[in-house]
Amino acid sequence: MSHGDELIRLSAADLAGRLAAGDVSSVEATQAHLDRIGAVDGAVHAFLHVAGERALDTAADIDRRRAAGESLGELAGVPIAIKDVLVTEGMPSTSGSRILEGWIPPYDATPVRKVREAGLVPLGKTNMDEFAMGSSTEHSAYGPTHNPWDLERIPGGSGGGSAAAVAAFEAPLALGSDTGGSIRQPAHVTGTVGVKPTYGAVSRYGSIALASSLDQIGPVTRTVLDAALLQDVIAGHDPHDSTSIADPWPSMADAVRRADVAGLRIGVVKELDSEGFQAGVRQRFHEALDLLERHGAEIVEVSTPNFEHAIAAYYLILPAEASSNLAKFDSVRFGLRVTPEGGGTVEQVMSATREAGFGPEVKRRIILGTYALSAGYYDAYYGSAQKVRTLVQRDFESAFANVDVLATPTAPTTAFKLGEKLDDPLAMYLNDVATIPANLAGVPGISLPVGLAPEDGLPVGIQFLAPARQDARLYNVGGALEQLLLAEWGGPLLDRAPALTTHELLATEEGAV
Amino acid sequence: MSEISAEQVAHLANLARIALTEEEIAHLTTELGQIMQAVEQVSRVATPDVPPTSHPIPLQNVFRDDVVGDNVLTVEQALSGAPEHDGGRFVVSAILGEEQ
């Protein structure tokens, strides 16, 4: 294994340790990841934009500051990939949409600013379903991302680019956004770790909004400790986001380092442990629970009867909020402008621009949201959905009265084939059955790998959920389970992923852009 | 609840300012009908005694002093992504059509 190959397989924490010890420079680490991107991203297509030169400049600056004895953040010099939903000063930010093609924002989103201030090195922007609407990245206007475990399969969505980037060792860390599972479901299908923090833990300032009452920014990594270190960097109150939580946060990294499940009460959600889930997904889920039980956790069954209505409520609330948020793409202040033949009024220009600039899923949800909010239907649809939201929150409250965390499989199946569900929006929406309740209630969730499904050899994730503001509980149980599984497996799950280089040519021929 | 018609979809598209093609309208009419059927279950459980929740974490409105913030764009920055501007303002086509 070459030096570069070794560097890209390090966790962010280990790489940070090597950087701090002076064994390796940030320029070397950054170059190793850029080389990896050059070698495999033609096949994976995790990135929409790679900012190689600027990344190397940033890395060189960190190396200089470290050499000068400056005190730097724990992750200083470690490369990171950024989901294209976050605006980045000087780097294109499209949210996966044609309507923002080429737009270079004049400012950084708060999580991006915090990442830069902590000395991390942004490598570029990652692919996603257009405006984060989807579970497969197939709705990206720039072509899908391919799952590094099997290039013919989906990497999950909407943050498939961020998950695939860390799974393919193109970056040790990435930022994602989770509105209904867009961090956790990609983690599940790519054998990686993803965390949706408590709503309001991480500022949404500069995050291109999908559904403002559901969106949350979070870490995408290969280890639980790396996710904790990244959450410690990006979380915290931001006056630029009025929904940002003002309370201080404990260190999530400490929670991982002290992880211990002895006496922890884990509730298994009965409604999400059913026949509708793939056999191998359930098998690995229960094996993980057994392992935790053998190490002192107490496993109890809990019932959340209103979760079955969560998807329905979500697909009213999300389109309603999205139809309002996406009204800003009006061809006036940024992005695309299409003028109809022979000119037209500003409204006709707007309509022509939005027809050309939005993809089919975005149009579907805008129209659905406009319908759900229209006079005469508002109470029946949007109003009812908000009531279901109350019922889902009550289910969480009564469950958390008896247990410390909840556990579910992260998604019903392993990665499906690209194209398989593209023409069936309802089937696509069902992917998010286990992840959506957390967004409706604002509670935090983590997904981490628990093995490969025996029937198809593809990764399976377990999801833990905790009460709002108790993100540290997720890092405790996640960190403990990860250590137990590593001891059982003798190494990380991703060591079992196929080498990508043999697939490169094939995918290039397929026309993966 | 009511079925969705092609006329309704066309009206919604107009409200949402998306110039959908006839083909898109036909396709969306079928799809929206199916999706609405699937989500209508919310009205069965949303009984009058359940209060609605608009936001996941209880919050109060946030106020600050009415002074210039630290995140103000310059005119140049604000116009930097505009499809058309005159150096100080966004430029758009006519607001009113001939018949108006």
Automatic annotation (TrEMBL), chain A:
- Give a Pfam family name: Amidase
Please write the reaction equations for the catalytic activity of this protein. Answer: L-glutamyl-tRNA(Gln) + L-glutamine + ATP + H2O = L-glutaminyl-tRNA(Gln) + L-glutamate + ADP + phosphate + H(+)
According to its UniProt record, which residues of this chain constitute the active site?
83, 158, 182
Q: Which SUPFAM superfamilies match?
A: Amidase signature (AS) enzymes
Gene3D superfamilies according to UniProt: Amidase signature (AS) domain
- One GO BP annotation of this record: translation
Task: Extract the GO molecular function terms from the UniProt entry.
Answer: ATP binding; glutaminyl-tRNA synthase (glutamine-hydrolyzing) activity; transferase activity
Q: Domain Amidase spans what residues?
A: 28-474
Q: List the EC numbers from the record.
A: 6.3.5.7
Q: Which keywords describe this protein according to UniProt? A: ATP-binding, Ligase, Nucleotide-binding, Protein biosynthesis, Transferase
Q: Give the record's GO CC terms.
A: glutamyl-tRNA(Gln) amidotransferase complex
Q: Which PROSITE patterns match?
A: AMIDASES
Q: Does the keyword Ribosomal protein apply?
A: no
Kindly state the subunit structure of this protein: Heterotrimer of A, B and C subunits.
Similarity-based family? Belongs to the amidase family. GatA subfamily.
Q: Per its database record, what is this protein's job?
A: Allows the formation of correctly charged Gln-tRNA(Gln) through the transamidation of misacylated Glu-tRNA(Gln) in organisms which lack glutaminyl-tRNA synthetase. The reaction takes place in the presence of glutamine and ATP through an activated gamma-phospho-Glu-tRNA(Gln).
Q: Which PANTHER family match?
A: GLUTAMYL-TRNA(GLN) AMIDOTRANSFERASE SUBUNIT A, TRANSAMIDASE
Q: What is this protein called?
A: Glutamyl-tRNA(Gln) amidotransferase subunit A
What species is given as this protein's source? Agromyces agglutinans
Q: What is the lineage of its organism?
A: Bacteria, Bacillati, Actinomycetota, Actinomycetes, Micrococcales
Q: Which gene encodes it?
A: gatA
Automatic annotation (TrEMBL), chain B:
Gene Ontology MF term list: ATP binding; glutaminyl-tRNA synthase (glutamine-hydrolyzing) activity; transferase activity
Which UniProt keywords are listed? ATP-binding, Ligase, Nucleotide-binding, Protein biosynthesis, Transferase
Domain of life of the native organism: Bacteria
A single Pfam family it belongs to is GatC
- Record field: catalytic activity: L-aspartyl-tRNA(Asn) + L-glutamine + ATP + H2O = L-asparaginyl-tRNA(Asn) + L-glutamate + ADP + phosphate + 2 H(+); L-glutamyl-tRNA(Gln) + L-glutamine + ATP + H2O = L-glutaminyl-tRNA(Gln) + L-glutamate + ADP + phosphate + H(+)
What's the family?
Belongs to the GatC family.
Can you name this protein?
Aspartyl/glutamyl-tRNA(Asn/Gln) amidotransferase subunit C
Which species is this UniProt entry from?
Agromyces agglutinans
